[in-house]
Design brief:
Layout: H1 2-20, H2 22-118, E1 126-130, E2 133-140, E3 144-154, H3 156-172, E4 180-190, H4 192-201, E5 204-206, E6 211-213
Parallel strand pairs: 3-4, 4-5
Antiparallel strand pairs: 1-2, 2-3, 5-6
Length: 218
């Protein structure tokens, strides 16, 4: 009972001080405001720590992504280097092939011209280049022209190609043709089917050492 009286008395004194004593009232208000500030700071600290944890998680994710990107970049660069090596090899092969084809065409010009001279026909051969057409072997005199192609390995496709080129000459460039047109194919090797087809079409077929199909008579 005594404690209750003291508590009531204390409350009355506190209320009285709050009403009458300005300094006391300000001190209590300051303490209450400080407590509110402390509570806010604690909430801010908790929120800040949550943000820090979230940032740590994001940083970890970014580091993992960065490592993956670095690995992808490394693999991509390796692929680029490999492609460069392959491109260089292809360019070298293309250069060699071009030289070989050029050499083969020059050889064809010499061999075919020589075989023609043996048959009493003198004509200078070269490559005929037109806007939409290129003929590997071409030459013409007053009444004879030679139209031909070269192939490392001769098949039916090359025969059709020669026939198509002759047709284009007839339709678009007739001035390059003559009353007698000698169709010729020069090759290193020919399939049996190609030899048979050349005979049927009247195409002169030869290699560096022999005639696979004789020159048709005029």
């Amino acid at each position: 009972m005594r404690k209750m009286i003291n508590m009531e008395t204390l409350k009355e004194r506190l209320f009285s001080l709050l009403e009458k004593d300005i300094e006391f009232r300000l001190a209590v208000a300051g303490m209450l405001g400080f407590r509110d500030i402390m509570d806010r700071l604690e909430r801010h600290d908790r929120k800040f720590n949550e943000i820090l944890e979230e940032l740590k998680r994001h940083r970890k994710i970014l580091e993992e992504h960065s490592k993956r990107l670095e690995e992808h970049d490394r693999k991509f660069n390796e692929i680029l280097e490999e492609l460069k090596r392959h491109r260089k090899i292809l360019e070298e092969h293309s250069t060699i092939l071009h030289r070989y084809i050029t050499t083969m065409e020059e050889e064809a010009h010499e061999v075919i011209a020589y075989r023609l001279r043996e048959k009493g026909i003198s004509v200078e051969l070269s490559t005929l280049v037109l806007p939409d057409l290129e003929v590997n072997v071409y030459g013409a005199t007053n009444d004879i022209c030679v139209v031909g192609e070269t192939a490392v390995r001769l098949g039916r496709r090359k025969i059709r190609e020669l026939e198509d080129k002759v047709e284009i000459l007839r339709e678009k460039y007739p001035k390059f043709l003559r009353p007698r047109t000698i169709l010729v194919l020069y090759t290193m090797r020919a399939t049996d089917e190609a030899i048979r087809r050349a005979k049927e079409e009247g195409i002169w077929l030869l290699t560096a050492t022999k005639e696979l199909v004789s020159l048709p008579s005029s």
